[in-house]
Amino acid sequence: MFNKVLIANRGEIAVRIIRACRELGMQTVAVFSEADRHALHVRYADEAYFIGASPSRESYLRGDRIIDVALKSGAGAIHPGYGFLAERADFAQAVLDAGLAFIGPKPSSIAAMGDKAVARSTVAKAGVPVVPGTEGEGSLRDDDLLTIAPQIGFPLLIKATAGGGGKGMREVTSMEEMPALLKAARREAEAAFGDGNVYLEKLIDGARHIEFQILADQNGNVIHLGERECSLQRRHQKLLEESPSPFISDDDDLRQRMGEVAVRAAQAVGYVNAGTIEFLVDKDKKFYFLEMNTRLQVEHPVTEMVTGVDIVKEQIRIARGRQLRYKQEDILFKGWSIECRINAEDPFNNFLPSTGVITHIVPPSGPGVRIDTGVYPGFEITPYYDALISKLIVWGETRAEAILRMRRALEEYRILGVRTNIPFHQRLMDSHRFMAGQFDTRFVEERFSLESAQESVEACPEIAAIIAVLVAHRQTRRSAQFVHHDQRDVSNWKWFGRWERMRK
Amino acid sequence: MFNKVLIANRGEIAVRIIRACRELGMQTVAVFSEADRHALHVRYADEAYFIGASPSRESYLRGDRIIDVALKSGAGAIHPGYGFLAERADFAQAVLDAGLAFIGPKPSSIAAMGDKAVARSTVAKAGVPVVPGTEGEGSLRDDDLLTIAPQIGFPLLIKATAGGGGKGMREVTSMEEMPALLKAARREAEAAFGDGNVYLEKLIDGARHIEFQILADQNGNVIHLGERECSLQRRHQKLLEESPSPFISDDDDLRQRMGEVAVRAAQAVGYVNAGTIEFLVDKDKKFYFLEMNTRLQVEHPVTEMVTGVDIVKEQIRIARGRQLRYKQEDILFKGWSIECRINAEDPFNNFLPSTGVITHIVPPSGPGVRIDTGVYPGFEITPYYDALISKLIVWGETRAEAILRMRRALEEYRILGVRTNIPFHQRLMDSHRFMAGQFDTRFVEERFSLESAQESVEACPEIAAIIAVLVAHRQTRRSAQFVHHDQRDVSNWKWFGRWERMRK
Amino acid sequence: MMNIRYIATIDHQDYLIDIIDERHVALNGQVCEIDFASVGDQPIFSLLIDGKSYETFVYPQEDDWQVLLLGTLYSVRVEDEREKRLRAAAGGKAMERREFHLKAPMPGLIIAIPVSEGQKVNKGDVLVILESMKMQNELKSPREGVITRLRVNVGDSVEQSQTLLSVV
Amino acid sequence: MMNIRYIATIDHQDYLIDIIDERHVALNGQVCEIDFASVGDQPIFSLLIDGKSYETFVYPQEDDWQVLLLGTLYSVRVEDEREKRLRAAAGGKAMERREFHLKAPMPGLIIAIPVSEGQKVNKGDVLVILESMKMQNELKSPREGVITRLRVNVGDSVEQSQTLLSVV
Known about the structure:
The complex is a heterotetramer, with 2 copies of chain A (504 residues) and 2 copies of chain C (168 residues).
Chain A: E1 4-7, H1 11-23, E2 27-33, H2 40-44, E3 47-52, H3 63-73, E4 77-79, H4 89-97, E5 101-102, H5 107-114, H6 116-125, H7 142-152, E6 156-160, E7 170-172, H8 178-193, E8 198-202, E9 208-216, E10 222-234, E11 237-243, H9 252-268, E12 273-281, E13 287-293, H10 300-307, H11 311-319, E14 336-343, E15 345-346, E16 352-353, E17 356-357, E18 360-362, E19 369-373, E20 380-381, E21 388-396, H12 399-412, E22 414-416, H13 422-430, H14 432-436, H15 443-447, H16 450-453, H17 461-479, H18 487-503
Parallel strand pairs in A: 1-2, 1-4, 2-3, 4-5
Antiparallel strand pairs in A: 6-7, 6-8, 9-10, 9-12, 10-11, 11-14, 12-13, 14-21, 15-16, 17-20, 18-22, 19-21
Helix pairs in contact in A: 4-5, 12-13
Chain C: E1 4-10, E2 13-21, E3 24-27, E4 30-38, E5 44-49, E6 52-60, E7 65-69, E8 72-80, H1 81-89, E9 100-103, E10 108-112, E11 120-121, E12 126-132, E13 135-140, E14 145-148, E15 157-158, E16 163-167
Antiparallel strand pairs in C: 1-2, 1-8, 2-3, 3-4, 4-5, 5-6, 6-7, 7-8, 9-16, 10-12, 10-15, 11-14, 12-13, 14-16
C-alpha cells in the first residue's frame, strides 16, 4: 500500500491534491516545468523534481519522465489531476506496468470512455439514452463526417474525441461551414491533446449541461453524489457551476433517476474511482448521456460543499483498496454551493488571456467562502498553461444566500498584475435570469453581455469621473514637480514610482 | 425596521459583521480612527466616517461620536462587535435613547452580567453553580479584598469586574503578593476598560475553560449551540478554541446539562441576542459558572462550523425582532472545528507584540479552511490595538482530521513584515498532550514550551545551516560586486535591494 | 486657493470637476467632501466622498483612464479646459484618428490574419487570431479604419507587445 | 571552479558547508544537488535539495541568521574559515561580550524597570515592562551581564527602536 503520491499536474489542482495527501499523512512528490519552479505546488510538496521545458508537451505531458520520477523518488502512486495526462489510457497503463498505483480508473475504462464515440455506443448498449450523433467507433475521416452530418441535422457540434474543456469543439449551422470548421477543430484538438480526431453530435436547443459525480470502489460499490449545474459556459468553457442544479432543485425523482443512470453508465465500463457523467437535459427534462469524464473535475468542490464528502481523499482511499465509506443513503445534500472560475482574462476586451506577474492579492474570506488556487503575489502567469488562476466557491443555506455571498466575495476579491474575469461574474450575479435560474448552455453567449447587464446595476459614472480626475491631477502635479507640504498626502505618491517601474 | 447598520468596531470583527450585513442586503457604515483610514473595514463598508485619533479612547471608545455618525448617516442600528463598547451598558442605553437599535442584549442584561460580581450573585440565585469568590455586589476596596482573600484561599485570581480577554487579571499564590498584584491589576483594568474595579475568585486546579454559545430572541426563546473548548490560554488570553470540547466529546448527557444551565443563566437576566456562558469544569466534570459575555465572541466561528448557524446573521435578525429560526432540537452538531488565533507577536521572543507593515500574505485555502481577517499586504500593524490579525479556522469530519488540516494550513500560511505566533500553533498541533485532548487552562504556560516541543518533531538543523550559508554567500558575493553571468540566478538578487530598503 | 477645473468625459457625457483643496471637489458645481487614498502601494484607490466609501482599480491608458468600479469598467478621458478647447478646435475627432497599432497582448502563435493591407475594417472586426494559453484568441479592431502595414505572417511566433499591424 | 567553504554553527554544533557551484553544495563533505530561489521578491526561500522541497523565512540579525523552517527557528552563525579562525583566536566568547543595547520593539509606555544601573542580571531576567497593544510586555535579558546606562524612566513614552538600557 502506497504512502507517497506523485502529483502529475500543476496549478490549483496540484495544490488541492497535495493538501488531501498531507491531511491523510501521505508524502507528496511534485513535478515541474521550467516556468513553474516558483509555483505553489512545488513549494508545498515534500519533494519536487524538474521534468522539462515550459510547453506542456515537453514537461507535463511527458509521461515517461513522470514515471521515472515516481520510481526514483519512491512514490507508490500517481494522481493525474485533470487535463494533461489524466485521460490517457496509455499513461495509466504505463503507470500500472511500472508497478505503481494509478489514482483513477482502470486504463480500459479510460479508453472506453475517452474515445467519446466509443463511450456513446457503450453506454447506449447499457440502456443509457445518448445524444444523437456519430455513433461509429474509432476515428472518422472528413469525407465520412461530411456524409453523416446532414443525417444528424444542423445545428450540430464537432467535438474532439480526446476532448474536454471545449477544446477542439466547433458549432456548425450549415453544410457550407463544415470543411473549414472541421479543419479548425482538428488543429485545435491536435494542439491540445496530441490527437486530431473529432466526432459529430446533434446540438440540442435550450439544453442544460448537468453532470453527476460518481464514486466507485474496487469492490463494485458505486454511488453518486448528486448533480452539478454547468450550463453557464462561454465558447464551451465552463465559467460557473453550482450544486444542486436550479433546474432539478427539489425534483428528487428526476435526481434519483439521473443518478441511477449515471451509476449504470459507470458500471457499463467497470468503473473504479471518481468520475463524472455529463448529461444534456432539454426543456422537457428529458436527459441524454453526453460523455463521461474519467477523472477529477475542476468543479468538484461544489459537490464537496453540499455533501461534506472530500472527493480527493476518497479517490486516494479507493486507490489504496479501501471500501467506500458511504452508502448511497448516507449521501445527504445540505444547502447550496456555487463556484466561479476566476481566469486571467479581460472580460472587457473579448476575454483575451492576460499574462504577467501578479503583484497583489486580497482574497475574500469569512464564513462559507472557499478558494482553491495555485497563485500568490509575485507569481507570474505565463502563456504556457490555461488561464484558470483561482476557483471561488461559496456555500449558503439556500441558493439566494449563496448568490448574495458570492456577490460580496467577488466584490472583495482583489487581484492586481493581470486582468481577471471577476467583473464578468459580478454582472452575472446581478442578472435577473441567473437569479431566477433561467438559463441554458447558450445563455452567456446569446443573452448576456457586460454592457446590457450593466443597466440593471447601480451605475456611478460620476464617481468614476471624480476618481479619474483625482488620479490624473496627482500625476500632473507630480510631473510638474509640485512639492506639496501635506503630510497626509505624501505617502500616496509612493506607488506612482513603483507602478511606473512595474509597467516598463 | 432598520436596513442600515453602523459597525462600532475595527479589524477582523468589523469585516465579519460587514459581510453578514451585506449578505442580508443591509447597508453598512464603518467608523475609523486616524490609524485605520486604510483598514479593510473602511474599504468594504458602504460608508465610512472618521471619528478621531488613533488611541481607542479618542475614537473607538467615543460612544457619543459613534452615535452621532449613526444618526447623521441614517443607520438604524449599531453592532458593537467585541471589545471596545460592546459590554458597556451606558453605551447600549445611549444607543436606544437615540432611537437606534442595539444589536446585542438589553442594557440591563449587560449591566447585570457586566459587573462580574453582580453576575455571579444573580445566576447563583437562579440555581446556577458558581466558582467560590467575592460574591459581594458593586466595587470592593483593597482592604475588603485583603480581608476576604484568606477566606477564599490561595491560589486565587484577581479579575477586572469590567474585564474580558485576560486584561486586569492576576494570579495570586500568597497573601504577601496581594497588595502589589492588586495594584497592577487595577492599573491594567483602568487602562483597558476605564474601570479599575476588581474581584476575587478561587483558582480551580486542573480546570477546563468551556463555554456555551446561546441565542435568545425577543419572544423569550432561548437555545444553546453547544460548547467551545477554550482552555488553551497564555496569560489568560485564549489562543486556540475548538468545538466540540474533547473533554465533553460524546458525553451528550454532560453537554445537555451544561446547555440547560447556560440557558437558565441567560434567562436569569432576561437575555436577548447572542451571548456566551463561560464555565470552569474540574477534573470530575463538576462545572461552575464563571461569567457571561454579553456579546459576540472572537471564537464564534468554531460554533458556526459545526452547527451551520451564522451567528452574526442571527444577531441581526433577532435585533430586527424576528423569531429564532431554530429550535433546540434543530441544532445538530457535525464534525469538529478548531480556531487558531494568529497574533502579530514573536513566539521565540517572549511573545512580544510585533508592529510594522505587512508586506506579503499567502493565506492557506482549500477544503475546510476559513480565515477571518482584517489585514492585507500593505496594511500597517500599529501599536494602538490588539495583536490579533487573523483567525484561522478549520473543519474536519473528526478531531483528527481537523488537527491534520490545521497542521497543513499553518504550514501553508505565509505572513511577512511582522512576526506571528504561527510557529507556536504548529508546535501545539504536534504536542501529544494536545492531540490526546489532555490539557487544562495552565497547560500552555506550565507544560508546553517551544523548545521542548521541538524534540517531538523532525528537526532539520543541517537544512537551516545550508540555507543560511546560501543566503550569506549571495550577500557576500553581492557586496563584493561579483558580477555573475547566470541568467537563472540574477532575478534572485532583486529582493535584496528591496528588502534592505524595507528594513530602513 | 484657486480651483483647478477638469472635464471628465465618459461615453460622450461631460462631468465638470473642480479640485478645490485636498479635501473638497465640486462635481458640476456641487461641492463634495472627499478623502482620497491609494491602498497598499497599489493602483487601488479608496475614495470617501460625503461619507460613501468606494474602491476602484485604475488602469492608465494612452488617451484615457480605465476605472473599474463595482464590476463596471469606465473609460474616462480627463482634460483641463485648455486641452478641451484645443481638442475641440482641432475638430474633436482628431485624436481618435491617430494611427492605431495592434499589439500582441501576450506571446503566441499567429493562426490567421483575416484582413489584408488597404482593407477597410469596422469596429469589432477580427484582425488577427493569436493562439496562446491553449486558446485561439481573436484580436479585434477598436474602431473603423483602413489596415496599413501588416508586420507579421501566419505561423509567426510573436512576443508580448509586438506590433502586428496598424489601422489608420 | 574553486569551492568556497563556510562553517555554519547552530547551538554550538558546526556544519561544514562547501559551495561547489550554483547547483551543488557539500554538507560535511557529502555532495548534494540543490536548486535555491527566493520567492515572490520576498525573504522567503525555496530550497530543493536532492529532490526534497523546503521553504524558509530568513531574518538577518546582527551576528547571525534566523531561519524559520517547519515551525522551528534556528539561529545560524555563518563564517568562512578565516573568520572562524580569527574568532577562535580572539577567545571565542569575545563577540558575545559586546555591549547589548535593549531597544523598544514597539512604541509604548514604560510601566516598570525592575533593575538598576550596575546590577548583575541573568539570561531571561526581566529588564523593562513596556505597555503596548493593550498588553504589558516583559523585555528580558538575552544573556547574563551587568546593567549600564539606564536611559529611560518609568512613565516615559518611548518610540520604536529607542534604546532603553544597555548590558555589558
